[in-house]
Amino acid sequence: MDGFPSGEQILAGLSHALMVVDSQHIVSWVNPSGEALFGTSAKNLIGRQIDHVLHFSDPRLDAALTEQDISLTARGVMVSGDERRLGIVDFDIHPLASDSEWRVISLSLMPQDGPILESENNGPSNLAIRAPDILSHEIKNPLAAIRGAAQLLDRQLDESQKPLTQMITAEVERVVNLLNRMQTLSSNQPAQTKAVNIHTLIDRARRSIEAATGQVVKIKDKFDPSLPDALIDPDAMMQVLTNVLANAVDATKHLPNPEIRIVTRYSFGASLSAQGENEAIRLPIQIMVCDNGPGVPAELEREIFSPFVSTKKEGQGLGLALVKKLMRDMNGRIRYDRENQDEMSRFTLFLPVAPKS
Fold first, then answer.
1. Is 76:64 a contact under the CB 8 Å cutoff?
2. Nearest Cα to 25, choosing from 7, 49, 46, 6?
3. CATH for 7-109?
4. Are 336 and 296 in contact (CB under 8 A)?
């Protein structure tokens, strides 16, 4: 059929990374998605030993890379390249049916770690987030009574006993604030999106943190001046940026040489299918907030956006859960990873472009 794409054109257009390896375990071909995953060109990958290119957290998978006849599929495994962690992937390796001298490797980034981003679902985690709507009324009423009783007692006690009632009042306020934040997580209010210059919001967020902490926040920025307006809710985005930047400031405040970077860029590849829509929404606007703090412990990385997961001793674990929800409400996504090359923690925000008026 005239004009029908070739087999190589079809393979090149796939969204997951494909690699072809010869009988000597040498990389012979990589598709464009593979180049994007590794962050380098096919020219730099072709001709290298596959076990020098890929490294898995499970040594059995590393061994499979150089076993000629093996066919293997693994789900949700951590994979790294030469200098950086690539993410959690679904991995498949198998010989070609037509010629067993050649093997095909497939790497598909799982939603929470890669730029191909997940769709919404109604799983148990979402049900858990909605639980505050059911419980808040029943909890807040007795809390109000406890606070009122403590305030009445406070008027009748001498000064030596008042710290106890003041502690009760303060703890009640803390629990009420916690419930309010949980209710925000469970709300289903639609985002009020419009075209916004993201650089203006970044500057506002920085100045907001400076006002709150009383200190100048030193940030190295690398902005793309040609970046188009993003289609976002400015209030929600302000909360997202303030939260992520505040985390970076907190992570670096005790370091002798703290470093925070913000990078903006336009990049193809990330997309999602919005609820109720058939067409995927592209998310080419990226904001990367990096810091040289200690980062997220490896055992918490996959849960860092879940409610009540925190790396801080005094943290409630709701900040990043709220950030994730706000980003979803705006048809955006957020990802955490760590750059092994320079040991920087990185939160990447993926946002849609505002349509031209």
1. no
2. 49
3. 3.30.450.20
4. yes
CA distance 345 to 294: 8
The domain segmentation of the chain, as residue ranges, is: 7-109, 124-186, 194-351
Task: Report how many helices (DSSP H) and strands (DSSP E) the chain contains, helices first.
Answer: 10, 15
Please identify which residue in the block is written with the tokens 């789900």. Answer: 75
Look at the pTM and tell me if it is higher than 0.85: no
* pLDDT, averaged in runs of 10, over the chain (357 residues): 53 75 90 84 89 84 82 80 78 80 84 40 43 55 75 82 78 67 61 90 87 79 92 88 90 89 84 58 90 81 71 63 86 83 82 87
Which distant-in-sequence residues (6+ apart) come within 8 Å of 297 by Cβ?
311
Tokens of 90: 């679904």
Q: How far is CA 294 from the centre of its chain?
A: 17
CA distances 53 to 21, 72, 115, 221, Å, are: 11, 18, 20, 31
